[in-house]
Amino acid sequence: MVCGDCNHLPGVCHNINYFNLMEISQGFLVDAQFLNKRFCQIQSLVHPDKFGTNSLREQNNSAGWRSLTNKAYNRFKRYGSRHDVLNEEFLMEIMEHNKQIEEATNIRYLTNMQNSVKNKSEAKD
């Protein structure tokens, strides 16, 4: 998230997948020790003190990333909230597939899409 070469902090991506942000595999069980470690890593990377002399934009980006990280962390820490994250991700995936089906112009595209979904499903099993 922070550029290693120039220490630039990009704007917050509000539609980021919490699993990807926290670098944990998608599932209900979460390694609490790893989650805590990753949370501390991100908070350290985007801490406002590191961007105090940077532009106002980067200072705001820092606050935004800290806020987003707090949301993700709290969502995973609350055992029941994990279910919401999984359902949200699954719902977004289904909506995207439905959109692609509606916009499909030929049977080959639909067949490829069907195979892709099938392979993805088999990989999770």
TrEMBL record:
Q: Report if keyword Ligase is assigned.
A: no
**What does the entry list under GO cellular component?**
mitochondrion
Judging by the UniProt lineage, the source's domain of life is Eukaryota
Spell out the InterPro entries in the cross-references: HscB, HscB_C_sf, J_dom_sf
Q: What SUPFAM superfamilies does this protein's entry cite? A: Chaperone J-domain (SSF46565), HSC20 (HSCB), C-terminal oligomerisation domain (SSF47144)
Q: Which GO terms describe its biological process?
A: [2Fe-2S] cluster assembly; protein complex oligomerization
Q: What GO molecular functions are on record for this protein?
A: ATPase activator activity; protein-folding chaperone binding
Keywords attached to this Swiss-Prot or TrEMBL record, sorted alphabetically, are:
Chaperone
Q: What is this protein called?
A: J domain-containing protein
